[in-house]
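User:
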Amino acid sequence: MANLLHQLYKTKLRLAGLVTAVVGIGLLFAAKYVADVPTLSWMAQWPMSEVGAITLSAGLFGIIFEYYARNESRGIAAEQFRTVIREEAPTIRDVVLDSLAFNADTLKDVASPESLDRIATNAMGLRLEDQALAHDVYTDLRDQVIRAPERWHDVDVSVTLSSWEKGPASGRGSMFVATIRWEYHVTPAASTMRFACVSDLAEYRDMLRDQTITSAWYVGRNGGRDAASSDVFELLQLAVDGKPKKIRRTTRDGAQVYAVSLGATVGGRDVTVSYTYRVLVQRHGHLLYLDLPRPTKGLHVQLDYGNAGIRRVNTLDFFAGAQQARVDHAPASTPAKTVDVTFDGWIFPRSGVAFVWVLEEELESRVPLKSKSPQ
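Assistant: Predicted structure:
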């Protein structure tokens, strides 16, 4: 396109020079004709011959300049430009890099996502002094965080453990009822939230990677419980900004799924989502694990086990961060039995908190060894 414009410009200059020369020649012929015709003697005083000579000279010199001088001047200008670029390249480079480094919007406008990935990987490689490590770390970060559909903020989780009244109080088949309430701020990526409980382990693992599933639970068939039963898992309530939403439940063999429509008005804005569900947990499994499916900033989890017959609870947090989570147990002098876990930083998806307990009956059933009497 640039070459075509340049050729058009040259053609226009040559045509203008040619027209100017022809006009000059015409004026010279007119001056000669006026001098030979007595009736036109009144025009002899006009300086047509001088104007014609000047016009002819301008046209001829214009054509000559276009053919020779302009090519030479263009070469000189190009060489001067290259010299300036070579001399000022470091300064230009520093200015561009500073602009991109300190203005994220500018960098976003001039670089594609693929280019941004390469820039971030190379920058991390320089800082870590290990390009392979930087590539693996950034790839993992991109897959877990950058491609996550949404991010949760100020997550507050409360868990209450109590004995399951529909089953045995202890021994085989005894269960806890875990009532779990979540509340957090989020800009929803989809208009529907889904909760699932399945008995197929492969399906459960697939659901953990499914970005459309908010929460998934696995209940094996070996325990005699049906994952499709509302006694095993039930979504009790879901609200957006305090307004309850309708819950739809579907079941099939060995699975159940709850779906909740958030409404068309929540798209693109920050809302407060809260929901409560109930799930059965084996007492002698000694473990309750809460999984975080989205990147999360700020987490508080409280476990209340006052009515569960638990002597003590150990806490394991799986947070990959420079800072440590704060774990607070209720004082032994109070009747409350609670554990609070708090983490203020960012948490990667698939991180979580595990509560491991020791039952009262397990400690009471231990009989101390009696020393043998001397014979």
